[in-house]
TrEMBL record:
Protein name: NFD4 C-terminal domain-containing protein
Subcellular locations according to the entry: Membrane
Keywords: Membrane, Transmembrane, Transmembrane helix
TM helices/strands, residue ranges: 21-49, 69-90
Species assigned in the record: Vigna mungo (Black gram)
Gene Ontology CC: one annotated term: membrane
Amino acid sequence: MVRSEASHHCANSLRVIWPQILWTHFNILILTLPLGSFLFSGLLAGILYDMKATTTTGGGNTCIGPHCYRLVFIVMAAACLIGFFFDLLLSIRTKMLYKRIYFTENSNKNSLISSRR
């Protein structure tokens, strides 16, 4: 009985805190999109491209062929795979949390209905 009351308290606390958490996560997400784009597509790709490129007589760097961006592709693919696995882990944990909250609420409703009879 104590455990279901604690779970019910947790569910009520989540309802109060969730909108604040949601906006915090949304703002962090909005901040990380351009930051990640700059770091990976701009800075990292430029540095790795310049490492593979050969210097030309005019003072610029030139690289022709798929080998120029191979390392950039591998790094970005690895970052995407890591992000995918973290997203998968988060969705599994969230699903388990919501199942626990749902079953706690239903068991509380059922106990209230049965106590009224």
